[in-house]
TrEMBL record:
CDD domains: NPD_like. This is SCP2 domain-containing protein. GO terms for molecular function: nitronate monooxygenase activity. Keywords: Flavoprotein, FMN, Oxidoreductase.
Length: 357
């Protein structure tokens, strides 16, 4: 099991006894919160903004706060680097990891997981992350559809990575010292908190939202797991469908290999929303059996591309129509290997049985 000394060797400002990691929360984790956590001896993460430009501005502000702290000899921030490298979420994780490590070997790769299958998949790949954030069902963020409680999954993952050098961070439902102690006893090196930090003064949050978080009680009854936030960022119904397809492919490694043998193609979907905005996803069913944004994994081209509306894709995913029907009605355009396009319906059908949009 990794020790805290391995963290302090990389992040010299953190507390040498125990420290808290501020979970990466979109928009909410701004420069003020991130630097406050780090100055207190923890490790803060800047969350992505609503737009790329927002993140650039956040990094500039964080850099200004760090440089301002350099003038204070008592501030932990005087030990912080003034530049940050962030890894965007990408399904084509291996390509991102290889590229980042080639240009910046010291950059840490952190991966959040919610199932044992995900850990097995990571351990079998040619690369390995530096840190695994083990997220339990109790987490308030974007959780895994098949997640289980932290107290169950954490020790199992710790045993799986024993001797690998991978550090373990526990996340989900940890709100005080008792939760921290429990996670450390189960084998975590450290813990990450997200929802608990929403009560802080530095978090970027509306007062009404914050008060509702503080007021909430009886969480088991009053907490609802929903795909709502999966729909909100881009306004596409298809976003949730591709999340489901991704989960379905990851859930069963044996079945995933069978799908790859059957399809042997990278399939791209360009979907047009009601506002004429377009988004593109791909299914890599040639090598890895994963879902990603864009028309193909880095450095590759799709074998077949499908063009259709957001509503028509949702109908196709729900099994209420077929590629043949959409094509005959002029609602689907196909470029490339048409036979590969017909095989994709079995993949959608298997994924659809896992949820209803």
């Amino acid at each position: 099991m990794a020790s805290i000394e391995e963290f302090t060797a990389i992040f010299p400002w953190i507390s040498t006894k125990s420290f808290i990691i501020g979970a990466l929360m979109r928009i909410l984790s701004g420069p003020a919160l991130t630097t406050a956590i780090s100055e207190a001896g923890g490790l803060g993460f800047i969350g992505p903004g609503a737009k790329t430009l927002d993140t650039v501005q956040d990094l500039d502000e964080a850099s200004h706060r760090v440089h301002s702290a350099h003038s204070s000899h008592t501030s932990r921030l005087s030990h912080l680097p003034s530049a940050y490298d962030l890894l965007p979420h990408a399904s084509d994780l291996e390509a991102w990891t290889v590229r980042i490590r080639s240009v910046s070997p010291s950059t840490q790769i952190w991966i959040q997981i919610g199932t044992v299958d995900e850990v097995q998949g990571l351990l079998q790949r040619s690369y390995r992350p530096d840190v695994l954030v083990v997220q339990g069902l109790e987490a308030g963020s974007h959780g895994h559809r098949d997640a289980i409680g932290l107290i169950t999954i954490l020790p199992e993952v710790v045993d799986m990575v024993e001797g690998s050098g991978i550090k373990i961070v526990a996340s989900g439902g940890i709100t005080d010292g008792r939760g921290v102690s429990a996670a450390l006893c189960l084998g975590a090196t450290e813990v990450a908190m997200g929802t608990r930090i929403l009560a802080s003064t530095e978090v970027r949050i509306s007062q009404d939202y914050q008060q509702e978080v503080i007021r909430a009680t009886n969480g088991g009854v009053n907490t609802v797991r929903t795909l709502l936030y999966n729909h909100l960022p881009d306004g596409f119904r298809s976003s949730a469908a591709f999340d489901v397809i991704s989960d379905s492919l990851r859930a069963n490694p044996t079945e995933r290999k069978g799908v790859i043998r059957s399809v042997r193609a990278v399939v791209a979907f360009t979907v047009k929303g009601s506002s004429e905005k377009e988004e593109t996803w791909h299914l890599d069913l040639k090598d890895h059996g994963i879902v990603g944004r864009g028309s193909a994994p880095s450095g590759q081209k799709p074998d077949v591309s499908l063009y259709l509306s957001d509503d028509d894709f949702a109908t196709l995913f729900e099994g209420k129509t077929s590629t043949q029907k959409l094509f005959m009605k002029g609602k689907l355009k196909i470029r490339g290997n048409i036979l590969k396009a017909t095989k994709i319906e079995n993949v959608l059908r298997k994924a659809q049985t896992r949820t209803n949009l």
